[in-house]
Amino acid sequence: MRYRPLGRSGLQVSEIGYGAWGIGESVWIGATEEESLRALHRALDLGVNLVDTARGYGESERIVGRVVRERAGRDGEVLVATKVPPRNGVWPAPAGLDPAETFPGAHIRESLQTSLRASGLDHFDVLQFHVWSDEWVGRGDWLETIADLKQEGLIRLFGVSINDHEPDNALALVRSGAVDSVQVIYNVFDQSPADALFPACQEHGVGVIVRVALDEGGLTGRITAGTTFPEGDFRNRYFKDDRPAQVEAHVDALTADLGIEVAELSETALRFVLSAPAVSTVIPGMRSVRNVERNVAVSDGAALGADRLAVLAKHRWQRNFYQ
Fold first, then answer.
1. Fewer beta carbons within 10 angstroms: which end of the chain, N or C?
2. DSSP state, 232?
3. Which domains does the chain have, with CATH numbers?
């Protein structure tokens, strides 16, 4: 495993982190706690040192906390990031909201205390807002609350999870110096963070955590026109109507241009994300030991060549499947 700095924080994070949304049984149907525990332990065995969870991820915080506590003293430091949901329950954050509606200080503190109790941990390394709007920079009492929580040792760093496919919506925050890390969607299809967000993060020393690097499965090659998901699985919304057929067509064109088999696509997609110098870590969801071993193997220092990156750049596909 290779490690990178998380912005100016002084922390070193594994290139491959652990996205813990899918563990346990929440909106990803089919996960089991037993399997999730095996996968997370295996990831830490292989050098993963950043686990990303959230208050809104069902049993994820509890499972993550259990594993981290079980391994205390066995490994190097395991960093855990969690998220505060907006008090008004609105995802993503539309324009015009006052920060007093979304992240008032009392709500931030209450959510953090709930997360600490659920996980059994005494602090979180990164506390992130689960939505963001640049309209909130310089408004509300959230910044003072974050400073207090850092001073009290309950959190080390502050971050935001940027609204899906809206990377420019955090530029003012990054430039303000108030944030330590941002989490953003970045993949072969959605390359927009590289336009303005990544340069700003590099300039201001802000760490970048990349989510949805495999496009919720679209960049694994396993989504085809006939793909279906169990009832209750969020991917029924993400891949609704003719979206699976659209994904299949784009994947066919991509693999043909690269001259690779579909089985090689996941590795290439992760290497694409890691080719961006601004990226600190990528956090694919890994619900099985097999997926952990396959994804962690990408952190071997073998960079994609300029020719490969040029081909991948042509497959930018701007769309928002979350809508």
1. C
2. T
3. 3-219+269-302 (3.20.20.100)
